[in-house]
Amino acid sequence: MKMRLLGIAALLLVALALFSGGCQTDGYYMAQAVERARKYALSELKDLPETQRDYIRYAPPEIMESLVFQREKDGSLDSRRNLVQKCVVWKVPGLDYCIVVFGVSSMRMNDWYPCQLIKKRFVAADGGFELARKNAVIYAMDHFTYLSDDERNRIRFTDPQPLVTDFPLYDKAIMSVLKKGYDEYEKSLATAVSDLKKTEKDETYFTQTSFVWKTNTKGEFAVVTGLSKSGFGLWAAISSRTYTQAEIDKYNIFRESVIIKASQYAVINLPRLSDYLIASIRTKKPLILTTNLKIDLPRKETPGEGQISFVWDTEYRNEKAVITGVGTADLKKWEPVQAKYFTIEDLYRSNTTEKRAREKAAEFAVKTIEGLTDDMKQIVSTQKPFILRTDFDLGTAFNEKEGVNEQRAFVWVSDSKDKLITVVGTGMPSMEGWLPDKAFFISAKELSIHNVIIKKAIDAARSYAQNNIQYISYKEENRILTARPKIYETDFDIPAVIQNVTGSPGRFSKLESFLQWSFVWDSDEENAKIVISGAGRDDFSEWTPAVIFLVDNAELERSIFKDRQEKD
To answer: Is 154 found in the same domain as 215?
Structure first.
């Protein structure tokens, strides 16, 4: 239910109420209502620390309201005669939720009394999903005319189960349901696809998503299916019919459907959600790992089930948001049981998917690479390898597909920089299904040529240089486009550099988990370098350039982190 935030300023009327005589003002009634809410909250929250109870005692709350019933047909929504839901809300420091005291009264609050205390997290709605759900309900009301009033009301007022599906959109079952309306259905489907193609660069890729509600018939469900550009963006309904559970399972893309379930669970249950993390959970694909994490309230696993976790990056370098659940390996059955943050080290120790891939890589290296010394075998057996996304030539058998089947290399550092122990294979980004293909020694410099993430970052730096050629010469531009840069972690004062280069105040902000990476080329001047600085993760993913500038060699040397080796 949408609420209107009145804000703290309205409570300033309390002061006027205390000094006014005669009839009471609206501020007086609001102050009395707040005191009733305060007393009610303190009586219900006796387990809170006294410092947090003091906040409720003395801090002014916010008032949220929503219309329940408009008594005057032609009157204003703010009419004193209207019946409204009024909530008195405290955002107590140290709590991951708001204290909400709920009540119903007239606008003046002269008859407001607390009804219930709610511990509520206010999270911004997923606009794309909510609009798609609303359109699905409207479409269902127009097309499920043969359902009972009870079933139609269930569609109107209860949350559906969202699924990613691949139902056939032209089939005999739909034709038999629509009968004479099938020709019109074909036209509307063609129109929907045409409209989506206008906004989608890859015209062959649309996501089919379905909203599912139970009916009164056991084992039968009402399903509204639509197409969207990505996720639920620009979702358009294209069909509605009832299906059995077996039919839904046949066309349910379980992996993608469970990602929706995990992301919705995360937004509801993860503590201290930031806007960045909410956006990341809703728009980015998580890693899906088999794990053995400790669960606070474990659910008993049945035969064939195991612990499966969905992992998203956070703003912090050493922290991951993890939704852990229990289900089958094919994700046909999976239910979330815990939403927590884990350090990279904790997740590493509990990541059985990656652990098994590491074991496969180590076994393959020892068995395949000729010339491994006993010391090297010890390194492979005991030390943690680097895991890189690479683009080595594995032959025609390897068919890479972003996010589905990708090449990963496990790299161990031996006593020589020219003898990195490397095992290359393919599998899902989470390492699920990873299989080794080739193993060999390689130099750090040659390995960097096949590091996909670094190559993307270099391409981004070069594109930035081409878009800012006013700061470099023609020769310098060609050098940037053709020569490989040196890459360092640096600590330049980027806002000051931008101010110096452009003459305008510089802006530069980065997440705590991001590092400042600088790409360096020789300049036309003998004692200076061309530098493109920006921020990205420690593996260079999400690196974004911020400024291009000229710096003398001594200043560059001072700005390079000495405890970090140059990234070849």
So the answer is: yes
Taking the C-alpha atoms of residue 275 and residue 262, their distance in angstroms, rounded to an integer, is: 18
Per-residue pLDDT of 443-457, as tens digits, reads 988 898 899 999 999
Instruction: State whether 330 and 421 are in the same domain.
Output: no
- What token pair was written down for 405? 């089947």
Number of domains in the chain: 5
Contact 321, 266 (CB under 8 A): yes
Q: Which two tokens stand for residue 188?
A: 């509307």
- Under DSSP, is residue 375 helix (H, G, I), strand (E, B) or coil? helix
Residue 158 and residue 238 share a domain: yes
Q: What is the pLDDT of residue 65?
A: 84
Residue 429, C-beta contacts closer than 8 angstroms, at least 6 positions apart:
285, 287, 403, 406
453: which 2 tokens?
């993430």
The mean pLDDT of 370-380, rounded to a whole number, is 92
Q: Print the domain residue range for 274.
A: 257-350
Task: Dump pLDDT digits (tens) for 141-195.
Answer: 999 999 999 999 999 999 999 999 988 865 554 444 444 555 665 566 566 555 5
- The total number of residues written for the chain in this structure: 568
Within 137-285, strands assigned E span 161-164, 207-214, 220-228, 236-244
Same-domain check for residues 145 and 29: no
- CA dihedral for 244, 245, 249, 254, sign (positive or negative): positive
Last residue of some domain: 120, 146, 164? 120
What does the pLDDT read at residue 19? 45
CA distance 159 to 512: 37
147 within some domain: yes
Report if residue 278 sits inside a domain: yes
Residues 112 and 20 reside in one and the same domain: yes
Can you spell out the DSSP letters for 293-334? ---SS--PPPTTEEEEEEEEE-SSTTEEEEEEEEEETTSSSE
Q: Please indicate, yes or no, if residue 565 is contained in any of the structural domains.
A: no
Inside any domain, residue 32: yes
Contact 504, 498 (CB under 8 A): yes
Confidence grade of residue 563 (pLDDT, cut at 50, 70, 90): very low
Residue 368: strand pairing partners:
none
- DSSP at 1: -
Are 325 and 336 within 8 A, CB to CB?
yes
**3-state DSSP of 8-63:** HHHHHHHHHHHHCCCCCCHHHHHHHHHHHHHHHHHHHCCCCCHHHHHHHHHCCCEE
**Whole-prediction pTM value?**
0.68
